[in-house]
Amino acid sequence: MNTNAVAKLLGVSPSTIQRWVKHANLTMNRNELGHYVFNEDDIEVMKKIQEQINNGVLLQDIAAAAKKTRQATIKKETRQPDYGSLVTKIKELEMKLDRKADEHVSYQLLQHRREIEELHNKIEVLTEKIELLEGKTAKEEHNPEEMVAATAEENKIFKRLKKKNFISSLFGF
Predict the structure, then answer these.
(1) Is pLDDT at 71 greater than 60 in this prediction?
(2) Which keywords, in A-to-Z order, does the entry hold (predicted)?
(3) Is residue 68 part of a domain?
(4) Which one of 45, 61, 77 terminates a domain?
């Protein structure tokens, strides 16, 4: 029986039963959780203690009616975890992690390669424009009269566009 059952049988509280066991220095069996387990002999001892207390004997003066040797409880055998399967799972996770890291690095390399190619194309375009501008400057040095005429022509076109933009902004067309 457990402490609660013995307490109900004797008509006292469970804490009273626990107090009697401690003060009378009784050696009790315990279960896996450390709770008292009472057999028939233990219940008889508790009844004698209750009888002595009812007759006016102090709890401190009560000696154990029957000294018992303490019996150890046998713990259930705990299963050892399977370390082999854990190691296998860890290795699988490491392999997946390595594969994912490789995929990520490959993706980044391809992205960097594409960016480098785009920059290379822009450099080629800029080189062509520079060469074209250098060619124009070389022409201007040879024909300054044509250059002045071309600049005057460009100024006229620019002024017309400016007037047109101004008028269209005023009238909204």
Answers:
(1) no
(2) Cell cycle, Cell division, Chromosome partition, Coiled coil, Cytoplasm, DNA-binding, Sporulation
(3) no
(4) 61
